[in-house]
C-alpha cells in the first residue's frame, strides 16, 4: 500500500511538472491526467497535502494556462479545477 501511495505522489508531481513542459501538446495531455487527481472526491491525504502546499502557485498557473485555446469544454474543465483547488 505504501508503494501505491508513493507512486500516486510521484505521478502527481510529474504531471505538475509536465504542465510546464515546452511542448503545448504535452502540457495539454498532462492537464487531462492532472484533473483526475484534483477532481477525485476521495483524494488520498498525501495528494491533498501536495495540492494544498502548491495551491497558490497552481491557481496562478491555471488562470493563465492555455488561455488562447478556443475550446469550451477545456475552459469549463479548467474553471472546475480552479474552483476545486480554491476549496482545498
UniProtKB/TrEMBL annotation:
UniProt GO MF annotations: protein serine/threonine kinase activator activity
Pfam families the UniProt entry points to: Mo25
SUPFAM superfamilies noted in UniProt: ARM repeat
GO terms (BP aspect): intracellular signal transduction
InterPro entries: ARM-like (IPR011989), ARM-type_fold (IPR016024), Mo25 (IPR013878)
UniProt record similarity statement: Belongs to the Mo25 family.
Name recorded for this polypeptide: MO25-like protein
